[in-house]
Amino acid sequence: MAGKKQFDMDTALDAAMIQFWRVGYADTSLDDLSRATGLNRSSIYSSLGDKDTLFLRCLNLYAARYGEKYDAALSCAASDPVAALRAFFDVTLKRIADPELPDGCLIAQSAMAIPVLSPSVAAHTKQALGFQRRRLRAALKAGRLTDQDAETFAVHAAAVNQSLAVMSRAGASPAQLLAIVGVTVDALSRALRP
């Protein structure tokens, strides 16, 4: 249509997600989102929604993108739960090492910002954290852990995963992050021994 600027919704959402990921919800202004997406404020509102709506869409995009990778990593949990857990953490370590992406994790960063988030965004953030724990729990249960042990390890592994994101933002080296993962993977290996 003549006179109307066209844009790619996926590209705009990805750019907004990176902006929120880089500086957080509270420190991202509509002007920042406009610069990141190339859209003016009215186009952001009409096409992507208000800041809360856009942030929720970005959280969903992030959770879906990395959730698929975590699911694939955990797919061998029934036959080799230790390898599955290691592969799960490898997804995070690869994301952290990618120079094209901001440090850390959008969900971890959002969880730390819960006091300044709107109630709906805070609830959505908590829900995203819960998905990761439930994903881990199901995989660990398939890997021969009891219900209680699967839950305990899932909570622990989810916490370690989020701490990797925080530690990477704080400047931890790849070797330090790998050592953190090693402790958890070794603990699971010991728990599975007959």
Write up what this structure looks like.
75% of the residues lie in helices and 0% in strands. The chain is an all-alpha fold and 194 residues long. It has a domain at 59-192: Tetracycline Repressor, domain 2. α4 packs parallel to α7. The longest helix has 24 residues, at 51-74. The chain is elongated, with a radius of gyration of 19 Å. InterPro entries: Homeodomain-like_sf (IPR009057), HTH_TetR (IPR001647), Tet_transcr_reg_TetR-rel_C_sf (IPR036271), TetR_C (IPR011075).
What key phrases describe this protein's structure?
194 residues, mainly alpha, Tetracycline Repressor, domain 2, 9 helices, 0% strand, elongated, DNA-binding, TetR_C, HTH-type transcriptional repressor ComR, transcription
Which architecture name of one domain does CATH use? Answer: Orthogonal Bundle
Query: Main beta sheet: strand number and arrangement?
Result: none
Class from secondary-structure proportions:
mainly alpha
Task: Identify the CATH homologous superfamily of one domain.
Answer: Tetracycline Repressor, domain 2
- Listing every helix as H and every strand as E from the N terminus to the C terminus, the arrangement reads HHHHHHHHH
What proportion of the residues form beta strands (DSSP E)?
Answer: under 5%
Can you tell me the overall shape? elongated
Helix content: over 70%
Distance between the termini: 68 Å
Per DSSP, the total helix count is 9
Total number of strands: 0
Q: Mean of the pLDDT scores? A: 92
CATH topology name of one domain: Tetracycline Repressor, domain 2
Q: Give unreliable regions as ranges.
A: none
CATH top-level class of one domain: Mainly Alpha
Keywords: DNA-binding, Transcription, Transcription regulation
Protein name: HTH-type transcriptional repressor ComR
Organism: Streptomyces rimosus subsp. rimosus
Pfam families: TetR_C_13, TetR_N
